[in-house]
Amino acid sequence: xxxxxxxxxxxxxxxxxxxxxxxxxxxxxxxxxxxxxxxxxxxxxxxxxxxxxxxxxxxxxxxxxxxxxxxxxxxxxxxxx
Amino acid sequence: xxxxxxxxxxxxxxxxxxxxxxxxxxxxxxxxxxxxxxxxxxxxxxxxxxxxxxxxxxxxxxxxxxxxxxxxxxxxxxxxxxxxxxxxxxxxxxxxxxxxxxxxxxxxxxxxxxxxxxxxxxxxxxxxxxxxxxxxxxxxxxxxxxxxxxxxxxxxxxxxxxxxxxxxxxxxxxxxxxxxxxxxxxxxxxxxxxxxxxxxxxxxxxxxxxxxxxxxxxxxxxxxxxxxxxxxxxxxxxxxxxxxxxxxx
Lengths: 81, 249
Prior knowledge:
heterodimer, A: mainly alpha, 79% helix, 0% strand, B: mainly alpha
């Protein structure tokens, strides 16, 4: 049983690293993009809006993730002068 | 040939080539340090296992999973995958992250392999295991790409051909230039693959949830173009900011 649990845990860890890694915002953001696309496509919204929404959201998500990485890479500001 | 087929073939080929270069670094390190027989056996078994995964899972995905559900799942997975690749490539291109250094990885692998004892005769299980693991783990990403891109448009054969071609090309080129892998423009290739995977992900997820892309599959190269422009702009803006920060400091 412990062997099964060990392999199961390793399998789960592998897929967590594969899909989430250090960028959980990309997994959550991609899910949000799909959900928003589905809602807009089925709510009678104008076609140009529906077509543009998903790429615009993807670009925003990528920009936010790069910005997060940029901020994480900066050294902390020193207080005072 | 349809534009979507060309983009699919190029995406799978480039993605497979990038992963196979990384796998080749490991195999060459093992071959040079511990002997080529175990290194090549490990690599061959890994490739066979990966091919078997595609054969076992691919047709089942295509035949038993409803198409719209498959496209939504595949599209979302490609979006996550593509965004991870693209983000990393953008950070490396703009100087926020060190570039992937195959020479450094090769040196590190060689040092690790030299540190462990080698059997006097018979098979070298350490060498086999390291080569197998290196090829299998890198190849697993290729399998995911082949299955997702191939299944979403019922082009599993075409995707498999793209991956197979990359394995052959990299193995052939690698045999000649094996110790000069740092010269491969890996980051540029990863950025191109990331852009294409994000484009496919957007397209297929959209198709799955009911978005009617203008021109059908013609929208795919348009998405590639849009994301390519955004990637170029991001590298320009972020890279300029990093250089300005260095000058001020």
